[in-house]
Design a protein that fits this description.
By secondary structure, the chain is α/β, with parallel strands linked by helices. It is about 40% helix and about 20% strand. The chain has 15 helices and twelve strands. The strands form three sheets. A six-stranded mixed sheet has the order 2-4-1-5-6-7, with helices on both faces. Strands 3-9-8 form a three-stranded mixed sheet. Strands 11-10-12 form a three-stranded antiparallel sheet. The two termini are about 20 Å apart.
Length: about 350
């Protein structure tokens, strides 16, 4: 499953520094001037997972394959991007290709870094959202204008949905925050709107703030969607060995790096989870949507597995570890045989049976 998260924000809020930290190496140009990112940088980032090394040790394999998320560092946006200001058209096209949006807002006070826009994180977030809304209104207005004199189309559910979207967008409501029935969800996809993208917010904070990250508060709506990080510290962490990284985090009084929280939030925002396969060939995490059935999970490995699905042989992670793998858990009757209606759990260790 290819998952793409677009990193967006005003110029010089720390997008490229965050991107470089995610990848653990200097890929994007993090220069101190607007529009230093013109073409989007793309990188694949492993999803942190403490279970995989444990599974690999039990099944005696050296190959570990974690789940992954693709991050795209997109050019900085300015007010008026929807009308082509700055690199607006390029910016908006790149967002359209992503599955979700990571809004990076500036919550640090370094006066040496050029600041585009206000000093208010809430306002910065709203600038980005406003440009997405304006672009989507263009799309909706064009559809309404083209079809309003067509009696058949004018009474269709798609046309009524367009009218509703226009009304809500004009109020500043993002399309992703509205409720839809199943038919409307399918019709919504036909508009290819930018504001239908699920999103979360990364607040790029000062180094001193990072040390007291547990008590960090930001005066912004959508607070539950905010992940505070210090992109500068995260990049420093990315250049250290695993042991040095843990030691540095301990010194900072932080148990989990900001990047781990960003990746986990991306997973959560997209409604994803992992399940595992474990054998002498490899220990691997597979990405699926929450609520996926066993056949759908099998399809993440290969479409033939889903078409020819017979059953899934499953052991929970806890039982697998406690009883030292497949054989020990199976001897105690902890191996379950699940059929087509089984809903996958995040700690499932699975072997699929299927007809080719």
């Amino acid at each position: 499953m290819k998952l793409s998260i677009g990193i967006v924000g005003l110029p010089n809020v720390g997008k490229s520094t965050l991107f470089n930290a995610l990848l653990g190496k200097q890929v994007a140009d993090a220069s101190n001037y607007p529009f230093c990112t013109i073409d989007p940088n793309v990188g694949v980032v492993e999803v942190p997972d403490e279970k995989l090394p444990v599974l690999a040790n039990i099944v005696k394999t050296d190959k570990i394959v974690p789940a992954a998320v693709e991050f795209v560092d997109i050019a900085g946006l300015v007010k008026g991007a929807s009308q082509g200001e700055g690199l607006g058209n390029k910016f908006l096209t790149n967002i359209r290709d992503c599955d979700a949006i990571c809004h990076v807002i500036r919550a640090f006070s370094d006066t040496n870094i050029i600041k585009e826009g206000s000093i208010d994180p809430q306002n910065d977030f709203e600038v980005i959202c406003a440009e997405l809304i304006i672009k989507d209104l263009e799309t909706i207005d064009k559809f309404i204008s083209t079809n309003q004199n067509n009696p058949k189309e004018k009474n269709s559910k798609k046309f009524l949905l367009a009218k509703r979207l226009k009304s809500e967008l004009e109020k500043g409501v993002l399309a992703v925050n509205l409720q839809y029935d199943d038919e409307e969800k399918d019709l919504l996809k036909e508009f290819f709107l930018l504001t239908t993208k699920p999103y979360f917010i990364v607040a790029n904070v000062d180094e001193n703030t990072y040390i007291d990250i547990k008590n960090f508060k930001l005066k912004i709506s959508n607070w539950e969607s905010v992940v505070p990080v210090c992109a500068k510290i995260e990049f420093e962490l990315s250049e250290l060995s695993s042991e040095e990284r843990l030691s540095y985090l301990k010194e900072l009084g932080v148990q989990q790096s900001g990047l781990e929280r960003v990746i986990q939030k991306a997973y959560e925002t997209l409604g994803l989870q992992s399940y595992y396969t474990a054998g002498v060939k490899e220990a691997r995490a597979w990405t699926i949507k929450k609520g996926s059935t066993a056949p759908q999970a099998a399809g993440a490995i290969h479409t033939d597995f889903e078409r020819g699905f017979i059953m899934a042989e499953i052991i929970s992670y806890g039982d697998f570890v406690k009883h030292n793998g497949w054989l020990g858990a199976k001897e105690l009757g902890l191996l379950r045989h699940e059929g087509k209606d089984y809903i996958m759990h995040p700690d499932d260790i699975v072997e699929f049976r299927f007809n080719v």
